[in-house]
Structures are given as C-alpha cells and as structure tokens.
Write a structure and sequence with these properties.
Elements: H1 2-11, E1 20-27, E2 33-40, E3 46-50, E4 54-58, H2 60-70, H3 75-83, H4 90-106, E5 116-117, E6 136-140, H5 158-171, E7 175-179, H6 189-199, E8 202-208, H7 214-222, E9 227-232, H8 240-247, E10 252-259, H9 264-272, E11 281-286, H10 292-305, E12 308-309, E13 338-341, E14 347-351, E15 354-355
Parallel strand pairs: 4-5, 6-7, 6-13, 7-8, 8-9, 9-10, 10-11, 11-12
Antiparallel strand pairs: 1-2, 2-3, 3-4, 13-14, 14-15
Helix pairs in contact: 3-4, 5-6, 9-10
Length: about 375
C-alpha cells in the first residue's frame, strides 16, 4: 500500500500557479510598507515589480516563492506546495523562501537601483516577452521638442494616454518609458507619471538636459518617476550642476551623450568629469556612422574612470514629425526589438530591422492589439 501511494504521488501532476496578475501591500520586519505586483505567464515564469520602481524577471522557482508571499502564505503552506513539485527538505525550502524575501526587501534601501535589476535566484532577460506581451512600452507623447513645434501633429490627450497605460498593464506590461521629441513639452506629463504610480508599474522618461531644471526633476520624482535618461546633444556642454543635484535625489538616472566624429574627443573628456559630479551611469547615442576604433576608445575611457555603461534602448525623434524613426529600420538593428505607441495612439513594432504596420497584431500572439486603445 505504501508503495502504491508513493507511485500515485510521484505520478500526480505538479500544481501550477494560475497565470495572471497578483499584487499585495507588504511590510518589512521594521514595519515599513512596500508594494509587490507579480505577473505570471502560462509557463510559470514571472515578472515582479517592487514598489513601482524595480522590475525583476523571475525563474519558475522564484515565481512560486513570490506568489506565496504575495498571497500571505508562509510555513507549511509553502513547504507543501514546493514538496509537491521538488525533492527538497522543509528546512531548505523555508531558508530559500526567507532569503528570497530578504533580498527583495534589500532593494528598498538601495539608491540608484537599475529599474530592470536582479537578485540571486532570479535570471535577468530584459528582452523576454511573456505570451507576446512586451516587457517595456515606449510611449511617444509628442514628436515636438523645445526647439521645434509642429502644431498639426495629432496627439492623444491625457485621458486617452491613461487608458492606454491602464489597458497595457492589464495585458501584462510592467514598464513604460515616456519619449519624444521631448515629453516635457507637455505639461500633463506629471499627471501621467502620477497615474503610473497609482497602478504600481515602472515609469521612465527621456528628456534633453535643455528641457530640464532642478524644479522639474523634483516635481517628476514627487509624482513617481522611477528612472530618467538625460540626453546631452552633440552641440551641448554637460550641465554638471544639474547632474550633481539629480545624483542627490532618490532616482536612477543616466546621461546619454550624443556622439559624432566631430565631438567624440570632447565626450571622452566629459567622461572623466562624470563621477565627481554624481554621474555613475552612461550611455551613447551615435548620430552618424563612426569608425570602430573611435567607438572602442569611448568604452576604454568608461573602464578607465570607473563608470557603468547602461545601453540607451529608446529611439529619439529629431525631425519633429517622427519620420526619422525609419532610420532604425535597417540591417544593423536586426536584433533590436521595440514596441512603441505613436502620439496619435497607433502602435508600431520594430522586429528584425523592419517596422510593422501601425496597429498590426504583435507577433500574432497579442490578441486584439488595438484593445489597449478601445
């Protein structure tokens, strides 16, 4: 009889966590509140948003631990579930469970945390989609910028953008970035960021240093901005005073230097001044074809001065109409996959160096793509 029961238990299908979204308001041992938002796919893999500021990509075991924590389950409940799937001792399961939660909570006290981060037991893969749903959605609020204003470009209003973000979150997208042009041309950008904070998702922004000020950065953070990319255009000198102030705030930020054949030596000099002015994270935006040796020299300088290179994955619009987005559709962008929402609400996707038509179905697997606009 014992042997028969053993066989039955061995052959019994392992319990799976139901795909969907789960959230909870949690508390540290010091009774400090924080929020977790977990999205689980059909394969049992998850994405976890911690305090609407950090996105973690989970393997199956990590997803199962976090799911039980979000559900408020401890001790024997966790052990019973894990032992139904894995050969592990109770002591080992409880220890791994506690380690996982402690490492998640350790993120809460860190400053300058990358919005897409990792901890032990969690495998980072920022390009992985779940059921065809992108990890990150780039929202082009406008193609206008502070230097050039195009008045005839159709733009969605604040209510429409809120609806897009809400429905995208429902579909499982945990991370958004406001891009342009320059999104700060629109005064309602602060309200949209505040709305993302209410939903518990990660929100970033890309802006030219010329459009920023200490007051604006303070207001952005107060409304819930999680990360900021500051673009230093090829003809500009870094605003070191502004960067120093930003570095003293609780915000992950990086400086994106536009690089040309004419200014790359200046950029090399700027890199040496970054750390003394509070800049730790660097990215480049190449605006023209450059010799590989020049490109390599910039990375040698980064290593020399001890900076962190964080690739700039957004696409800047410079012509005020959005037509120059087509420059990204070429062979050397074959591995560059992006999903963007245009100012008028149409959705485009760049796959294998080619743009899909606006509003088309995403890989044929994101059912009713346009439902986020309904």
């Amino acid at each position: 009889m014992d042997l028969l029961n053993t066989i039955k238990n061995t052959l019994k299908p392992a319990t799976m966590i139901k795909a969907g979204s789960y959230s909870s308001n949690c508390y540290t041992k010091e009774n400090l509140p924080y929020k977790l938002l977990l999205r689980v796919d059909e394969k049992g893999l998850g994405r976890l948003v911690v305090n609407a500021s950090t996105l973690l990509f989970l393997n199956q075991t990590s997803t199962e631990y976090v799911y039980h924590y979000v559900q408020g389950k401890y001790g024997d409940d966790v052990v019973a579930f894990m032992q139904s799937k894995y050969r592990a001792e109770k002591k080992e399961i409880l220890s791994d469970y506690e380690i996982m939660i402690n490492e998640i909570e350790a993120l809460l006290g860190r400053v300058d945390v990358n919005p897409e981060s990792s901890i032990s037991g969690i495998t980072i893969d920022t390009h992985r989609d779940i059921d065809g749903i992108p990890v990150k959605l780039d929202c082009y609020l406008t193609f206008r910028n502070s230097e050039k204003v195009i008045m005839d470009q159709t733009e969605l209003d604040l209510a429409q953008w809120k609806k897009i973000i809400a429905n995208s979150v429902e579909a499982g997208i945990p991370h958004f970035v406001l891009v342009g042009g320059d999104p700060l041309v629109r005064s309602d950008v602060f309200d949209l960021i505040a709305y993302s904070e209410e939903l518990g998702v990660v929100m970033g922004l890309v802006s030219s240093q010329n459009a920023l000020s200490v007051e604006k950065v303070t207001a952005l953070i107060a409304n819930g901005l999680d990360h900021l990319s500051v673009v230093v255009t090829a003809g500009s000198t870094p605003d070191w005073a502004l960067f120093k102030v930003i570095s003293e705030k609780n915000l992950f930020f990086k400086i994106v230097f536009e690089v040309t054949n004419a200014n790359y030596q200046n950029v090399q000099k700027y890199l040496a001044n970054c750390l003394p002015n509070g800049v730790n994270n660097i990215a480049f935006e190449m605006t023209e074809q450059m010799d590989q040796a020049l490109f390599d020299a910039l990375f040698d300088k980064i290593d020399e001065v001890g900076l962190s290179f964080n690739p700039f994955t957004e696409m800047l619009v410079k012509d005020g109409t959005g037509e120059d987005l087509t420059r990204y559709g070429r062979e050397d962008f074959a591995n560059f996959k992006k999903t963007i929402v245009m100012p008028d609400g149409k959705i485009q996707q760049l796959i294998n160096g080619k743009w899909k038509a606006p509003g088309s179905i995403l890989d044929g697997s994101w059912d009713d793509l346009e439902k986020i606009l309904d």
